Amino acid sequence: MPTVFVSCGEPSGDLYAGALASQLSALDPSVRVTGFGGERLAAAGASLVGDYHGLAVTGLVEALRVLPQSFAMYRRLVRAAREQRPDVFVAIDFPDFNFRLAAAIRRLGVPIVYYIPPQVWAWRSGRMQTLKTLADRILVIFPFEPDIYREAGTPATFVGHPLVELASATATREEFLRAVDLDPGRPVVALLPGSRANEIREILPTVLEALPRISAKVPGVQFLLARAPGLADSLLAPLASSAAPVTVVVGRSDDVLNSATAVITASGTATVQAAIHECPMVIVYRVAPLSWAIGRRFVHVDTFGMVNLVAGSRVAAELIQDGFTPDSVAAETVRLLTDVPAREAMIGALRDVRARLGGHGASRRAAEAVLEVAYAGKKTEAGR
């Protein structure tokens, strides 16, 4: 019975971890999955040693605030790995935590698979060398990544993006909008302000300020916010004073994106999710000023949105830091709602992005690679 120890530290990683765990069980019903994650990983049958809630933040300054909790979780997971002696450790994204954890678990003689490694091609490229010495297998989800790793002498396998099969709506646009008391005959702007507490604090108030400006230019427009599960109610308190009404839906971001005419989304995985639904988007982001001042020096790309990186051009507008204002958000959103040629051009570009992400089966291909490493480890152990 192989034991797979998994570590993911935020909602998108938990989504991928859950899909991976499900495929591991489908390929080998005897497999035991354990580790660090959230609701999705647990729902897939994993036994959680720790829960990531409260540790998922973005920005250097923000990360300092959760250091004590991070170190406590790190020690708990290393202790669990020492007791369980897993056949393979799978790190999923979350590099600042997972690099340290993987190094400690590797010292126990456990092979390492890094699934969805950090974006070393975008910033802090020195981490490529760390990955080279740390991981036995590297599984990537963007089509341009294997060439980058190959040039650095670090083989990586493209398995495809798991969202291609995971990002599916559960209802038609008309069914869903009627169920949430919105009019399918009127335009809908989706709001995806992030899944981490610090993201929402930085992003939501500015987005809400933009809404009446959008309404003034597009009469009848409706606003629909996709709330990430597990968020504290206090984070959405600004909605109470919003000048435009906003309907809130919990945990149904795919239905929201499938039903939206356009979306204002935090930079990150949600941009890929929106691309899969061919939903025209405005990408926004802001971190604490000190985090931006420090982190900007380590960035090696001139675009941030994942959808733009995959496309190889600026398909969607990016309003980052000082460029993220109520007026700029409103102007870009109104353009997508009223400029038909611009809207059609973006939809065509998003369709191309989706095609580049690979077909269905990414999670299964990743699970097959993980089990190969686990079985090899068991053979090595048996031969000693």
Supply database-style keywords.
7-stranded parallel sheet; 384 residues; alpha/beta; 6-stranded parallel sheet
Strand order of the largest sheet: 3-2-1-4-5-6-7
Large-scale geometry? globular
Cα radius of gyration in angstroms: 21 Å
Number of E strands: 13
Biggest sheet overview: 7 strands, parallel
Uncertain residue segments: none
β-strand amount: 15-25%
Overall pLDDT score: 90
Give the fraction of residues assigned to helices: 40-55%
Per DSSP, the total helix count is 17
Note the gap between the termini: 18 Å
Name the structural class: alpha/beta
The succession of helices and strands, N to C, reads EHEHEHHEHEHEHEHHEHEEHEHEHHEHHH
Can you give me a brief rundown of this structure?
It is built from 17 helices and 13 strands. The chain has 384 residues and is of the alpha/beta class.
Please explain how this structure is put together:
The protein is built from 17 helices and 13 strands. It has 384 residues and is α/β, with parallel strands linked by helices. The strands form two sheets. Strands 3-2-1-4-5-6-7 form a seven-stranded parallel beta sheet, with helices on both faces. A six-stranded parallel beta sheet has the order 10-9-8-11-12-13, sandwiched between helices. Helix 7 links the parallel strand 6 and strand 7. The longest helix is centred in the middle third of the chain and has 21 residues, at 197-217. The protein starts with a strand and ends with a helix.
